[in-house]
Structure formats: C-alpha cells, structure tokens
Write a structure and sequence with these properties.
It is a single chain. This protein is of the alpha/beta class. The termini are close together. α9 links the parallel β8 and β9. It contains 11 helices and 14 strands. The strands form 3 sheets. Strands 1-9-8-6-5-4-3-2 form an 8-stranded parallel beta sheet. Strands 7-11-10 form a 3-stranded antiparallel beta sheet, with no helix packed on it. It has a 3-stranded antiparallel beta sheet with strand order 13-12-14, with no helix packed on it.
C-alpha cells in the first residue's frame, strides 16, 4: 500500500481532481465508493450550499473517504475560509480537503484543527516548500501535461524529481498524464506515492460536464490540446490547457459578448466569450466556444464509462503493471504493497 493510500484510507492511490463544471456529488461519490479518492468541487459555491452538497456525498459513500476541493485564488481566501467552516463539520472522520494552489495559513490551520488531511496541489518546488510549511499532508505535483489551469512550467516528471530531492520523505502525488493503471504504476515506480486525474473523469456517466465536452474529450488526442491564456475572464493570469476550438484557431479576438447561459442551483448565469467557465450539463448556447479543459492524457481516454468501471479497470491495470515490475528494486520513497 502506498503512503498516499494508507494516509487517506484508499484502496487505490488515485485522487479525482476537483473540477468545477465536472466534479459534482455524483462523481465524487462514485469514485469514492469504487475505492479511489473522490473530490467534490466547491469552486464558488455559497457556504450553505457547499455544506448541503457535502452532506449529500457523505450520505451515499457508505463510510468511504472523500474530499472537498477549494480554489483560493479564484474564490478568494475569505470566501474559501467560509466554505471550509461550513463544510468541515459535514465531512466524515476520514474525509480530506484538497486545494488548487496554496491555501492561506488560516485555511490550513482550520483544516488541521478539524483533524482532516490537507492535500495541496502545486506546480513549483518553491510552492512545495510553502505548502509543507503550512502543514500539507500530501502534495499534488501538477505538470504542464495536465488539463485546466497550470500552476507551474515544469513537466510532471521533472517536478517530481525536483520536489522529491528537496523533500525525500513527503507524500507526493502527480497530476498530468494519468489515464491508465499503467500510467499510475509508472508514476509510483518513478518515486510518487500516487496520482491525481481529471481528464479521465470528464466523460464519465456521473460527470456534470456538458455532453459536447464529454464527446470532444473522448475523441481527442494530445495534439488536440494547447496551452493558452485566452479564457481569462473570471480567472486571469493563469495559463490553461484546453481543447482547440474556433477561438483558439484565430489571432484576433472576437467581442467578449455573452455566448451561453449556465445554471447553478436553479439560477441562470450568463457566460461571456473567453470566460474561464467550462460548459456544464445545464449550459445552453454556444458551448463549442467555451473552455474545455483537457490534458494530454486524453489520447488514452477513449470511452464514456461509468466511474466505477474506470476505477476497476485502472486497479487491474495497476496490479498487472506491478506484477510485471515485481522483483525490481523498490522505490525508497514508498511503502511496499502488501
């Protein structure tokens, strides 16, 4: 059992990313029930609704661990702290909190005081130092292969090597390039304690992504993605990896007019062209012009299976890959599988 799995109580050392338009209660619960680490995306949810969603997940996972995800740089540190104060009492004893980017010291203190592991996703060695100094139990190292907003400029293996050298005893997961059990086993063999995946879960039956978003991820290959700063309204100053579309294909910007409407808790919200918002299941309008975040691992995401079936497949592939590697020297940075 890897240290990530042991720490979080998982059967498989795999975490699901907290993707705002994708990771609702159904996906989080399905991933956790299957033995991996589901995450409920809180994004900009009001604290009361965030607490209600966490209760919904807790009621359906049968005691399995799951996490909630917050994004301080978008939601704002004060609002994130309000979300956490509302949600932490709803988490089961074995729940955990993931942050995209560094949490504030107050946020980290609140999570630790509630007795839950803090999982911090970072993209640079310097941020790894800071996150561990604030009490992170797990670091998720995001490489530039990942879909969505990028926290650094290093490929995942380069970042893993750099952070492992600085923090030989830290619990490290990688994000970027994970779509199969072989990918997961390879990351563990290179010194990680597990991984986080996002693109893999976009097309699942339980995902709240728009059907067109799901279709495009399934049909895409790595070369259909690119890193851009185009979709910056609502989340500026952070490059992002998305699927190519008509907006990324031209040099001149079209007017930032409203092109779609998304619905949150029964309320409509207009979406401007170049918004950072991804199309959810209830989005209507010109969804093909919206940001569809997708990592290079999409080449190996080829069907819209239910989340449980994906976890079963990855677990078998992971075990098969480990059997093939059996007898080779174990990584000194992980605990051996029993």
């Amino acid at each position: 059992m890897t240290r990530l799995a042991a720490l979080l109580g998982l059967e498989l050392p795999l975490l699901q990313a907290g993707m705002g338009a994708v990771a609702g209660p159904d996906l989080c619960a399905a991933v956790s029930r299957a033995g991996a680490g589901g995450a409920l995306a809180l994004y900009k949810e009001p604290p009361a609704r965030a607490a209600r969603l966490a209760r919904e997940v807790a009621a359906t996972v049968g005691g399995r661990p799951f996490g909630v995800n917050v994004i301080p740089e978008v939601t704002g540190p004060d609002r994130c702290l309000e979300q956490l104060r509302a949600v932490l009492p709803q988490l089961p004893r074995n729940g955990f909190v993931t942050t995209f980017g560094l949490p504030t010291t107050d946020m980290a203190r609140a999570v630790r005081a509630a007795g839950h592991p803090l999982v911090v996703q970072i993209g640079t060695p310097a941020d790894a130092d800071t996150a561990l100094g604030r009490g992170a139990a797990v670091l998720v190292l995001q490489g530039t292969e990942a879909g969505g907003h990028l926290l650094g400029e290093q490929a995942v293996d380069s970042l893993l090597a750099a952070v492992r050298a600085r923090h030989p005893h830290a619990v490290l997961a990688v994000a970027g390039g994970i779509a199969t059990g072989g990918d997961l086993a390879g990351a563990v063999a290179r010194g990680a304690d597990g991984a986080m995946a996002g693109t893999l879960f976009v097309p699942t039956a339980e995902s709240t992504a728009h059907p067109e978003f799901k279709r495009r991820v399934v049909e895409a290959v790595a070369e259909d993605t690119l890193v851009t700063s185009l979709f910056a309204i609502g989340w500026p100053h952070r490059p992002h990896r998305v699927l190519r579309n008509s907006l990324t294909a031209v040099a001149e910007h079209a007017p930032a007019a409203f092109i779609a409407t998304t619905w949150v808790d029964g309320r409509p919200y207009p979406v401007p062209r170049y918004s950072a918002a991804a199309p959810g299941a209830a989005t209507t309008g010109r969804v093909e012009e919206m940001a569809m975040y997708c990592g290079r691992s999409c080449t190996r995401v080829t069907a819209p299976h239910p989340a449980a079936a994906i976890i079963v497949r990855i677990r078998q592939e992971y075990e098969d890959a480990r059997v093939l590697r059996h007898g080779s020297p174990a990584s000194p940075h992980r605990i051996q599988e029993k």
